[in-house]
Automatic annotation (TrEMBL):
This is Alpha/beta fold hydrolase. PANTHER family: AB HYDROLASE SUPERFAMILY PROTEIN YCLE (PTHR43798:SF31), MONOACYLGLYCEROL LIPASE (PTHR43798). It comes from Streptomyces mobaraensis. Pfam families: Abhydrolase_1 (PF00561). The keyword Secreted does not apply. GO terms for molecular function: hydrolase activity. GO terms for cellular component: membrane. Keywords: Hydrolase.
Amino acid sequence: MPSTTAALSHGAATVAYDRSGSGPGLVLVHGTGATKEQWQPLTGAVADRFTVVAPDLSGSGATTDHGGPLTVADLADEVLAAADDAGLATFHLAGHSLGAVVAAHLAGTHPGRVRSLALHAAWVRTDSRMAAEFRYWLALLRSDARHGTDLFVRMLPLMAFGPRYWERTDDAAYEALVGALAGVIAPGAGRQTEVDLTVDLGPLLGRITAPTLVLASAHDRIIDAGQQRALLSGIADSRYAEIDAGHGAPGEDPEGFAAKLAAFLDERVAAEREPAGLR
């Protein structure tokens, strides 16, 4: 597994990432408590035509760092370091949840590097309700660490998945999911949740020049419609799409989620190939 070094606000990080496929660059940024493995369904769908780079953010997977506080800018620097190390001068960029926030930050601070941008379940600014939600997560994580319980992973499906998941599940399936989540939630989920509390993309949205897909989940219990409207009004070249799932669409409907993003990416590549006069 390749890795590279990124300078962060409180020290350095060794950023691990996966690189696969061939073609135009595509960088994928995972969400809170996840790892680069979150992107396997999409990677499998597009690696025949994109060079896919998926880093582990600090607190996740094989990436190591100073262990202190993190910022959105720190995580964006890690993503850019992975893209640089993989030899991607420009790239398409997609992110989920916190990863979408990080992707938007990168696109706003380095607009010349980003060819297109796909944001799933992103938000512009953490409001008071979201802050209460994130502090609840932190309380669960701390309680689990103290008492050896699994409260956080039991909460996750309730928060992340929409009606279609619950219509087809039962108690045994839910318990199996809780067991699986317990084995994959990154140990740095708390540090990443602290970053969630600090999000404010407002000053950067107007600097994003890449064609942007704002992909919302129809049953998102964390990110409300107002946040999506703010993204659309703040990013000049943006469009809206929706998936019939909850906030955790990459896990709830991995094939449908991958198909939405792959269609947007393929469209952007085709548009780049058109003669300028035909666009």
